Amino acid sequence: MRPWRLALPLLTAAFALSLWTLAVRLPPPQWFALFKADAGGDIAILVLQQSLLPRMAVSLLCGAALGLAGTIFQQVLRNPLASPMTLGVAAGAKLALGLATVMGAPLLSSVGRDGIAFAGGTLAMAATIALAWRRGLSPLALVLGGLVLGLYCGALSALLLLFKEHDLQGLFLWGNGSLAQQGWDVALALALRLVVLAGLAALLLRPLALLALNDDGARGLGLSLLFARLGALAVAVALSTVVVSLVGVIGFIGLIAPALARLGGARRIDQQMLWAPIIGAALLWLTDQAVLQLGAGTTLPTGAITALFGAPVLLRMLPRLRTTFPQASNAPRSEPRARSAALVLAGLGLALTAVLALALTFGRTPSGGWSFAWGDGLAALLPWRLPRVVAALAAGAMLGVAGAILQRLLRNPMASPEVLGISSGAAFGLIVALFVLPAVGRHQQLFAATAGAAAILGLILVLGRKAGFSPERTLLAGIALGAMLDAVVGALLAGGDPRAMLLMSWMTGSTYAVDETQMVWAAATAILLLASVPLLLRWLELVGLGDAAGRSLGLTLPLVRLSLLLLSAALTAAGTLVIGPLTFVGLMTPHLARLLGLQRAASQLAASALAGAVVMVAADWLGRVAAFPWQMPAGLIATLIGGPVLIALLARK
Fold first, then answer.
1. 88/123 Cα distance (integer angstroms)
2. Out of 92-106, 295-309, 454-468, 638-652, which region has the weakest mean confidence (pLDDT)?
3. How far apart are CA 331 and CA 135, in angstroms?
């Protein structure tokens, strides 16, 4: 293939849609009037001059900037998964802008949106690199750190939006990448910044080419690795944060454009730096024109819809993706020291007991003070506290076990319902049921969420099998599918439907609406699903040895994978129905179990269940008392708890 064979169809389709959009709004004989400075009072011409044409220019510039940023990230870090989205740069910039907006206009006027976004993106990327440093910046460690920080920054942004809704009422639509324009100011600002940054990137061509070599070879050719990497990363961060500061988060282009450029035949860095921006510009231009054709250009954020077009293309090309980046060889490979499973599980059991006692008996009084409830006072409070505590416990246990099963099934330490998009699949299944069926009961919700989660996990397994279950390809497929489903959710939420606003409340992981019926349902579902796990322990023990070893030991691999797939999908769906898809439990608790020295399947799954229950019960209690009398969603609190814990563990190990 040649890169132009990918770029030309995209550009042609975008150009054709643009002509059609213009023709619908203004007859072709009048198009010459668009180039006149004075519209002559014609509203149609004025709208096209000040809205549609700037929007086209902004889409081209943003796509080019993100394509170039992704290329530089991937070259410097030797990681085909590196992008503003996977490194946490976009999420850090968005969080910094949200904090600056809450703090007031003086900070924005003194530092500027670009400076604040650059600072936030730089800090997020620096934290990501620091987390992966001890593993030699290996691709998996780097992307794991970026995803953790990105999710954590996203939770903090959602928390800001929860408490400062009036100050940040436009943050949700803007945060998903809205390209609607009211003049040429944004386009001109983008063009000026892109010209400067592209010029700096051009000066880095030789250092970037040498960075593809190993470190000794690059030093032998006279390259200063530290300055080359820092300079290239600064340019990439600036390209990413400029887009975030002016139009919002459009993170998926930075991942897919360089991948498509390489798939199209761009092997050298100079070819990639030429064709990735062109492909990125074409993708975003085509996506935005498609949004306009749907008549939803003012309500649907183009940045979210981009994933609907980009993810299927990437998934189609995924089996042909060649990972040509050299892998780090100095990463430590030591395992945590094995400990007594009985002692570890007993400790987790005591921790859960203590957290349950705290959540049920200790809380805030109507006047805002603190008090323990005993006897009749506790009996009066139990109908309010017990349902949400039991529901949080059940959901945490189910998600913890689901994450442990996925990591063993895929032999991938980054696998979890959140990272692989399985939680998003469950949410998507529930959304389809809510918007299609006239009435949706609890059993219908569970069935729809399970079907969505199972479909996504099945598709990931199919794609992973074609690629030999390569961790990079499996994760790339999960990221693409998760982004695509999140785009659907974001588009629905941005549409203003009343059901969508209810979904927004559910997706933050709130438990304060759980009643006794929902408590019984959550507890019964958790008991039923978790009781089936011991029946599959032998499979879970052997599946991590590899396909050849599994077959030699008598495993029927298709049956094993299907059974584990359905169980993990059901656990994810049931947990997601209770606390939403925004928790960290499925990713964090299996790592905690391994770091505690539990390697066998039975002890690891039991520890994951107990740790997940502890995290979610503690999150529910903190959400109830931290901002009393207001309620904070347990799902967001779990992310705020789990993020620092997992970041600390990643930094140590």
1. 9
2. 295-309
3. 4
What span, in angstroms and rounded, lies between the C-alpha atoms of 440 and 444?
6
Which helix (H) or strand (E) segment holds residue 371: the answer is strand 370-372
Q: Indicate if the pLDDT at residue 472 is higher than 60.
A: no
Which of 485, 459, 446 is closest to 572 using CA atoms?
446
d(CA 469, CA 547) in angstroms, rounded, equals 11
Residue length of the chain: 653
Q: What is the pLDDT of residues 42-58, one digit of tens each?
A: 787 888 888 889 999 99
% of the chain at pLDDT higher than 70? 79
**CA separation for the pair 401, 413 (Å, rounded):** 14
Q: What span, in angstroms and rounded, lies between the C-alpha atoms of 21 and 27? A: 11
What are the residue ranges of helices labelled H in 204-332? Answer: 205-211, 215-220, 225-247, 253-263, 269-293, 302-317
Q: Quick one: which of 650, 611, 540, 538 has its CA closest to 344? A: 611
1-15 confidence digits (pLDDT tens):
688 888 999 999 999
User: Closest by alpha carbon to 363, among 349, 352, 377?
Assistant: 377
> What's CA 162's distance to the chain center, in Å?
19
Question: Boundaries of CATH 1.10.3470.10 in the chain?
Answer: 3-320, 344-361+371-376+384-652
Predicted local confidence at residue 326, as pLDDT: 41
Q: Kindly list the distances between the CA atom of residue 548 and the CA atoms of 86, 127, 472, 554, in Å, as whole numbers in the listed order.
A: 33, 39, 21, 10
* Number of Cα atoms under 13 Å in the Cβ half of residue 498: 0
Determine the angle formed by the axes of helices 557-579 and 634-652, rounding to 10 degrees. 130
Q: Does residue 278 contact residue 161 with C-beta atoms inside 8 Å?
A: no
Smallest Cα–Cα separation from 145: which of 652, 653, 650? 650
pLDDT of 333 above 50: no
> What mean pLDDT do residues 562-584 have?
82
For residue 177, the number of C-alpha atoms closer than 13 Å in the C-beta half-sphere is 31
Residues 172-188 have a mean pLDDT of: 77
- The DSSP element (H or E) to which 69 belongs, if any, is helix 53-77
The top-level CATH class assigned to 344-361+371-376+384-652 is mainly alpha
Q: Which of 107, 106, 88 is nearest to 148 (CA)?
A: 88
Give the pLDDT score at 191: 94
**What CATH architecture does domain 3-320 belong to?**
Orthogonal Bundle (1.10)
As a whole number of angstroms, the distance between CA 610 and CA 604 comes to: 10
Residue 80 backbone phi and psi in degrees, to 5: -70, -10
Whole-number average pLDDT of the chain: 80
How far is it, in rounded angstroms, from Cα 179 to Cα 173? Answer: 10
pLDDT for 328: 38
SS (H, E, C) 427-490: HHHHHHHHHHCCCCCHHHHHHHHHHHHHHHHHHHHHHHHHCCCCHHHHHHHHHHHHHHHHHHHH
pTM: predicted TM-score of the whole model, two decimal places: 0.75
CA pair distance 40, 460, nearest whole angstrom: 56
Backbone angles phi, psi at 149, to 5 degrees: -65, -35
Retrieve residue 8's tokens. Answer: 């030309």
